[in-house]
Input
Amino acid sequence: MNKNIGLCITGSFCTFKKILPEIKKLVEEGNNVFPVFSYNVTTTDTRFYIAKDFYKDVEEITGHKPITTITEAEQFGPKNKMDIMIIAPCTGNTLAKLNNAITDTPVLMAVKAHLRNNRPLLIAVSTNDGLSTNAKNIGEMLNKKNIYLVPFSQDNIIDKTNSLVAHFDLLYASVEAALANKQIQPVIVR
Output
C-alpha cells in the first residue's frame, strides 16, 4: 500500500491484543503508521494491559511515539496529511462525541483535523452499547461523507446483548476499500 496512516486508539482495552497484529500487518505492508492515543489509553492500567507497556509496544511496532495531546494531534490538518485515518478500537464514547462534533481528546482532534482534508476515516467500533444508545450514532456515521466502518457483529449475544465489536481481521481489507471510497460489505457479519 505504501500510505501514511493515522491510527487512533481509544479505550476498549479488551481489544488491544487483537489490534496489535493488525497494526503490525499495516507496517509490514509498507505503510507509515502514526499512532494517536486517547487520554484513557495513555493513562489507564487495566487487567488487559499496563498503559506504559501498551505505549511501548505500539511505538516499537510503528516506529513512532504515540501522540497523546490535543496540541500534537492538530498536526493532522494541513501540516501532516494522512491518506487515511483509522479509529481502532473506537469506543461508544468516542463515536458519540465524533457524531456530535465534540473535540476534547487527542483522537477527536486528529480525526477532526484529518476530515477537513476530505480523506477517508475508517472506524472499528467496539462498544457495549452499540445496539442501544449508540445505534443511532453508528447509523449516522454510515451516512456521512468519507466515513467507513470495519465490519462488526455482536460481541457476546448471551451476556452482552447490546455489545458490538469490529472484526479486526478485516481491518486491512477495510482500509483498502476506504481508500477506494467504498464501504466493505457486508457491514454486519455473523
